[in-house]
Amino acid sequence: MVFKDSKPTNVFQALIPSIAVLAYWSALFLLSGLRADHFIFGAVILILFYGGVRIKRLRDFLLPLLLVAVVYDSQRFFADYIRGTIHVIEPYEFDKRFFGISDSGTILTPNEWWQKRIHPVLDLIAGATYLIYVFEFLLVAAYFRFFLCKNDTLPERARSMMWAFFVVNILGYITYYVYPAAPPWYVAEYGFGPARLDVQASLAGCARFDEMTGLSFFKEWYGRSADVFGAIPSLHAAYPVLAAYYAFRVKRLRILTVAFSILMAFSAVYLNHHYVIDVILGIGFALFAGAATDLAFALTRRQLSVLSQQQALERNL
């Protein structure tokens, strides 16, 4: 996780990024999944690795994000083969039992309650929140890495933050297959019957944002969704909480990141993309990923410090 300023020691090492990108393109081609944006993605990787020392910090900063992108996109090729039993009614019943809201004598889940109270202003706010949630996380991490460098611990904290992003995504993806769960929009459209694997990801409440703004962002994004049944945990809720976890020590960021986390939690439920339990678990996953990654970095620093001291003693002998 800690990268040193070093040049490749031989030709083979220098060619590793090119070989990796060519292998990536070839695999996608053989699987009939190669798109134009994959060429752009590969070109970005090559620029980051061969762009010289000046962009090394940017490369190290973006590496966890690039790895997440590759893992996420690849799931469409194997998701249906490793996924466990899909849970359709269980998350719904859980939310109805523990977070249910009485409405005209009927107990509704928070999702159902909000679907009866949609409003253009809420659509705009929630849609915009969904639109920028990844960028919010990256902006906070970039602020640590590139602008708050006077404190020696902050660049290290940015590295930890980006690798925590990788960790929370991998944990989330694993959970998607261990406990695949249908989102609330699926239940609203298809009911509680056996899970349908032919269903495409729905925009749900985000469709109202696209319609209001004339944009097609969510249509494009969810058209490329890797897994319909990846509702638990909510990574939409996890990213802002992870940003707040790392930003909490910086007073000027604390209120903004916590407020955005709360807004995202609301948006996930209001837009009918996640149950409350999905959001709660997403928050838990984020806090765990942040704490575990910080611990891993601290142990690594300690080991490197001990090793450095031992080497210094050996030189003095």
Q: SSE layout and pairings?
A:
Layout: H1 11-30, H2 36-50, H3 56-82, H4 89-99, E1 101-103, E2 106-108, H5 110-115, H6 120-147, H7 153-178, H8 184-190, H9 206-213, H10 217-222, H11 235-247, H12 251-270, H13 276-316
Antiparallel strand pairs: 1-2
What structural category characterises the helix and strand content? mainly alpha
Please state the CA-atom Rg, rounded to the nearest Å: 22 Å
What series of H and E elements makes up the topology?
A: HHHHEEHHHHHHHHH
> Helix count?
13
Characterize the overall form.
globular
| Low-confidence spans | 1-6
Task: Strand order, main sheet: write it out.
Answer: 1-2
Strand segment count = 2
Tally of separate domains: 2
What percentage of amino acids are in beta strands? under 5%
Question: Termini, distance in Å?
Answer: 32 Å
Structure description:
This protein is mainly alpha-helical and 317 residues long. It folds into 2 domains: 1-81; 83-316, no CATH class. The protein contains 13 helices and 2 strands; from the N terminus they run ααααββααααααααα. The protein has a two-stranded antiparallel sheet. A hairpin with a 2-residue loop joins β1 and β2 (106-108). The two termini are 32 Å apart. Mean pLDDT is 90; it is low at 1-6.
